Each structure stands twice: as structure tokens, then as C-alpha cells.
Amino acid sequence: MNRRQAQYRWYSLRFVLFSFVLFVAGAIPAVAQRSVPRDPAEPAQGRPQPKILARPAGGIARASVDEKLMRALIEKLVACGTRLTLSSWEDAKRGIGCARDVIAARFNEIAKDSNGKLQVVVDKFESTSERTSSKPIPLENVYAILPGSDPKMAKTIFIVSGHFDSRPSDVMDPKADAPGADDDASGVAVSVECARLLSKVGANGRGTYRATILFAAVSGEEQGLLGATRLLEWTKQQGYRVGGMLDDDIVGADSARGAPHRVRLFSGNGEIDDADSPSRELARAVEEIDGRAAIRMIFRIDRYGRGGDHYPFYKAGLPAVRFTEAFEDYTHQHQTPRTEKGIEYGDFEKYLNFRFMGDVARDNAQALRQLAQAPAPPTNAKLSGAVTPDARVSWSAEDDPGRAGFEILWRETTDPRWTLYDFAASPGETVLKGASTDNHFFAVRAVGKNGARSIAVPTEIERRPPPSASTK
User: What is the rounded CA–CA span in Å between residue 246 and residue 254?
Assistant: First the structure.
């Protein structure tokens, strides 16, 4: 043994002795003192190996997103000076009416290129809030509707929306400039670009989808989510069932180092203890379609202390989520343009990142494309099997010649995402041998022959209150 080897062994021995002393003294965390304990396998004989259907062929190519068209639309909206809901609806050059005209004109251009498939609607209504001085005011939303081709699915509607109103520092000042490039001309540009992409490409290249898709630009968001509340009411009046609502609000800037980053996707938990609200399931579906490299799921209804247009849908128990950029710059939100102490305030187009915004548009379009091709979700999903070694999952569904079957999903109670457990060709009950009802949550989703999946439907459990003691 040479001198260097002897020195190495001496230092190694010192390290081992030092580590042992720390171990005895409790200085090393307990998790590092032992290996992770092994849990029993569930099920003990191994999980089924179901056939996995491939996702729908084709898709929205990133190169097909036209950032120049998105930029041009935002420039026109910013040129309206202000788009505050309390500004003029009649002035063609300044105010919210100017913005409505810009959006309606762009939707009509897209409708011409869709061979008549896309239908443009200007929805006029009145609404009241504290930010309207508690007086009814006129408002308008602009919708472009791509009707579904399946008679049974056409009344299911998937919505993508941005709000076209803007605000200065004083939300009640209709005279101050409020460019609103990021908040929320960016979301409007995403909704409009989705209309162009999906009405042109269509499912399987034919321009049709099983369900209806609505591309919305709503007003009144800054005055209290007025346009979104009206949009929800309008869908009910038209007899639609909302399959999912994607709200894009502040999705245009990405100035932090390392851009482009993932877009944040907010979803609320609802009133359910196990984080399985319809909104949460929509978020999981979007992440699965677009990939974890594109979507960052945030398990909150919205940014802390704030709200957006998905909220009325969420409160109605419908699947609704919000897309928002990775890191917001509050000097460029809700600010009257000015410079103070060398800091420029104002929501201008020059601060936007169109590469990031194009990514968000593609993410929305791809999610809408697959969701609108999918079969209807199952109903009456139930879990039974308490105090037995097996979980029993049951569900119902109407006949659908376009459906291949159903995927039974499960996850540990602490996991954020589902994994596939088994596949069933028809509705009914499936016994999951050796799968604990205690250790996992379960869900079911429909799978089309084209590979498109519905939003997952978590199983409901029989809730038994614990026995209560009585004394005499």
C-alpha cells in the first residue's frame, strides 16, 4: 500500500466514524437513516396489462400557429386607446366598441375561410355590479361557433375565452388610456387563433368535431366577470351542456430568464375532499394532452386573492380552468401608462413574448381538438367494496358506435395524476381484484375508436358517518 492509498483509507475511516457519531446524536434526518419501507403490492398478483389506444392521429403543429396574425390583432386592440367596459360602444376609433368591431371583423374573416362552418354571433345584454355604479349598463360579447357534427354530441360545448375589456389604474375611469396588450388582448388573440386553427384544420382534416366548440371574446371582466357570467347564461339558453371551459387571461408575456416557460393552469378543488372536481379533471386532461413540458398544473382556483372568467363556470360545478403566464409583472397590469422614478408602467405590446403566446395558443387548440372528438364521459361512476379485499367500480353510459370502451384509472391519494388500471369494453361493474378501496382513488373515462379520451369521472363513494357514542 503506497502513501496516497493509506491516506485515502484514513480519511474514509474518519468520515465513517464522524457519520456514526452524527447518527447516534440524531443529527442525520430520520429519512436518511433508513431505506424507504416497502408496501404490499396492490393487487398482489399484479395489475392487468390493458391495451392502450393511441391518441388521435395528426394534431396542431406548432408551425401552423401564426404569431404575426396574433400580433396584428393585439396591435389593433391596443390602438383603441382604452377598452374599459364603461367606455363608448359607439365610437369606432376609441373605446370598447372599437375593440368589438376589430374582433368581430377578424372572426368573420376566419368564417369565410371555414367554408361557412364557423358562425359569428354578437351577444348584446345588460349587467350590473359595484363597478358599474350599481346601474345596468350595456355590454356585448363576441362568439364564433363551430357546430359539432354528431347529433348526440352537438349540444356538448367546449369553450375557449379571453376578455377584450381593459382597465387603467382607476377601474372607473373611461377616459384614461388602457392599452391592455397582455391583460387581456393576449387571451383574445389565443381564442381567435384557436378559431382559425380548428375551423381550418378540423378533426382528421375534415373540419368537423363531434362536439361544438365556441371561441369567445367577452367584455366586463374587469367590472366583475360580467361577460363570463352572461356567457354561462347564454349557453344554458341555447341548450348546451358545457364539456369544458378554457379561460386564457394574461398569457402573452414571458420575460423571466430561460423563456419560454410552461404556462400555468389553475384549477379549483370544488367541495370535494379528494381533489377531484370537474375543473381539476379538465386540468389533468389538458396536461395529459399537451404534456408536462408545456403545462404546469396549479391546484388553486386562481392566482392568490384574484379571479377570472372561468370562475362563474367553476362555481356552477362545471369543468373550467385558467391559463396564465409563468411569472406576472404587475407594473404592466391594471396600470395607467406613466413613468415614475424611472419605472415605466403600462400594459404595452412591446413587453409581450409571441413565441410563448404561440405555445399557449397551440396548447389550447390541441386540447380542444381532442376533447371535442371524444365520446361523452360516463355517468353514475360508483366505488364499492368497503371491508373487502377488492374494489368494485361501476358506471353507466349511453350507446355510442364511435366509442371503443372505457379506461379505469386509479391513483394513490397523495398523487396528483391518474394512471391506467384496466380497460373495459362496455359499461357496468368491474371488480379490481386485490385493489384496496382505502389506499387509492378511482375514476373512469370514455375512449373513442379514434383514441380521444373524455374527461375522467371520479367514482363516488358511499359515505357512512362513524358510529356515535351515547351515554345515559
Answer: 20
